[in-house]
Write a structure and sequence with these properties.
Elements lengths: L7 H7 L4 H7 L3 H24 L5 H18 L1 H9 L6 H27 L8 H13 L13 H14 L6
Length: 172
């Protein structure tokens, strides 16, 4: 249905409030959307920074980041769907904040990739391109991953980590 077509009345009903009661807690429908998106991003970023600041080596950190994001996103399909598809519904002010947070994410991943490069462990590929490939791969799991299917988020995280870090071809 999407944000634009979802009525305030429907939102209030889903959370068990009257429309005036809902607006007692939040000033607008868009503020609800913003809180969902930014809260979801902040939680993910918090974990990304915990991994980055850990004592693990850079390869282990990148493996942990890969696994975390796949598991986090697979376990929060509704929030990920909103995150990926509803940014266009934000006001200019909230949209700027959303884009700024996206940039922070990309920069954090680029730092991790840079650490791998400094250790001589990374192919000579632009770090921005790799960061966008990473988020492109992980962000769109909501379009095809079925949490009720045969593969759990943990196994999916292992596969994602393997493909992102080492590719799909056997060693020659």
């Amino acid at each position: 249905m999407g944000f634009e077509k979802t009525s305030v009345r429907k939102i209030a009903k889903e959370v068990g409030l009257s429309v005036p009661g809902m607006f007692h807690y939040v000033p607008s429908k868009e503020e609800i959307l913003n809180e969902i998106m930014i809260g979801f991003m902040d939680e993910g970023y918090k974990r990304l920074m915990e991994i980055y600041n850990s004592a693990m080596g850079p390869v282990e950190k990148l493996e942990a980041v890969c696994k975390f994001y796949v598991e986090y996103y697979a376990g929060h399909k509704d929030q990920l769907t909103i995150l990926v598809s509803e940014g266009k519904s934000l006001s200019p002010k909230h949209r700027r904040n959303f884009v700024d947070k996206q940039r922070v994410y990309v920069e954090a991943l680029k730092r991790l990739l840079s650490d791998l490069g400094k250790e001589g462990l990374l192919k000579s590929i632009d770090h921005s391109v790799l960061a966008f490939i990473f988020f492109g791969m992980v962000n769109y799991t909501y379009t095809w991953y079925n949490p009720r299917g045969t593969m759990g988020p943990d196994a999916l995280g292992d596969i994602f980590s393997e493909v992102f870090l080492r590719g799909v071809l056997k060693d020659q």
